[in-house]
Design goal:
347 residues, alpha+beta, six-stranded mixed sheet, six-stranded antiparallel sheet, 9 helices, binds zinc ion
């Protein structure tokens, strides 16, 4: 399967934090051909193990499987659903989105409704509509009709956007944060082939609500070092200054010196930089970023695990319409696989 085909499947799958099952099944299927063993732990992280020599370092790769989304909080007697946000979503992009409500009886399409412009007061037009004034319309005429669809408080709601190609290597879809990292891990496993290192490639749960799965998975795996494969904000759209972020899509993985949760371990940074230079893989450097990845949690597990990030520049992160270049996933996988082959020299 190509990176494009894998990313399409992963992006179209639903996996709001805490309900990653559909993505996990795909990851099990995609990683199994390249692993000696695939296990699911108690919090339902999925771990693909490639066994190596015990004298060589054990390396954990992590990509979170969950995506930002919504959860049904109340159902009105008129049949409208009010919701809570799961993870960071800009309130301004919520109105008029198409969504899927994942009930016990199946997935039902809906839209996020709000008061139309024609009946808004002048001051209302200038304000961002708060999420508690929005609602999901699934076409149910009353609460009982919504219940008959199996819809209940606590059901997860994902954005309803299908993956499409925009240009030669450029694609658009939902949940690229972090199905891009999931696709990169699968491709890296395919490329590794022979290595003395043990590799544990982990699809983690509940990153978007606080890096939760990565912590327990890292404790269980107990690696010597770790890399998180995730997305990072691309700075190549109008209005973003270079000081905010300088990464561009299509220019190779972004290697971060620091973000708000991690100062990349110097040995890990040197290992990645030297490998990229030796293998002539393009890369970008980023520093002083806001936000963090699974690496921030893995780093502080047990007595500390040297960790770093291999990031894929992505536009419109945490929106239902993210954009990235497939080349960056391919380069990220190539760098990760080459670094693993190189690890014994550095650690
Ligand atoms: Zn992420």
């Amino acid at each position: 399967m190509s990176v494009n085909e894998n990313l399409e499947k992963l992006s179209n799958a639903m996996g709001v934090s805490g309900r990653e099952g559909e993505v996990r099944e795909l990851m099990i299927k995609m990683m199994t051909p390249y692993a000696d063993e695939v296990v699911v732990d108690k919090l339902e992280n999925v771990i693909a193990v490639k066994k190596g020599k015990s004298s060589s370092p054990k390396i954990m790769l992590a990509a979170h499987m969950d995506e930002v989304g919504l959860m049904v909080k109340t159902i009105s007697k008129e049949g409208y659903l009010q919701f809570a946000k799961m993870g960071g979503i800009d309130d301004r992009i919520l109105p008029a989105q198409k969504v899927m409500v994942l009930s016990r009886k199946g997935a039902f399409p809906g839209i996020i409704g709000s008061k139309p412009q024609h009946v808004q007061k002048e001051d209302e037009r200038k304000k961002v509509i708060a999420p508690d004034e929005l609602f999901i319309d699934v076409g149910a005429e009353c609460k009982e009709a919504a219940s008959a669809m199996g819809i209940a408080v606590g059901d997860m709601v994902g954005f309803d956007v299908k993956y499409v190609s925009l240009g030669k290597d450029v694609v658009m879809g939902k949940a690229f944060d972090n199905r891009a990292g999931c696709a990169a891990i699968v491709e890296a496993l395919r490329l590794i082939q022979k290595t003395d290192c043990s590799v544990c490639a982990v699809g983690t749960v509940q990153e978007e609500v606080g890096l939760r799965g990565a912590g327990t998975a890292a404790f269980g795996v107990d690696p010597d070092l770790a890399l998180a494969l995730d997305v990072t904000v691309a700075g190549d759209t109008p209005g973003i200054r270079e000081i905010d972020t300088s990464t561009k899509i299509g220019k190779g993985p972004a290697l971060s010196i620091s973000d708000s949760g991690l100062i990349t371990h110097p040995k890990v940074l040197r290992w990645l930089l030297e490998t990229a230079e030796e293998e002539k893989i393009p890369f970008q450097i980023e520093a002083g970023l806001m936000g963090s990845t699974d690496a921030a949690r893995i780093y502080l597990t047990r007595q500390g695990i040297p960790s770093g990030n291999v990031s894929i520049a992505t536009r419109y992160i945490h929106s239902p319409v993210a954009v990235l270049s497939l080349k960056d996933i391919e380069y990220s996988a190539k760098l990760t696989a080459a670094a693993i082959r190189n690890a014994s020299k550095h650690f």
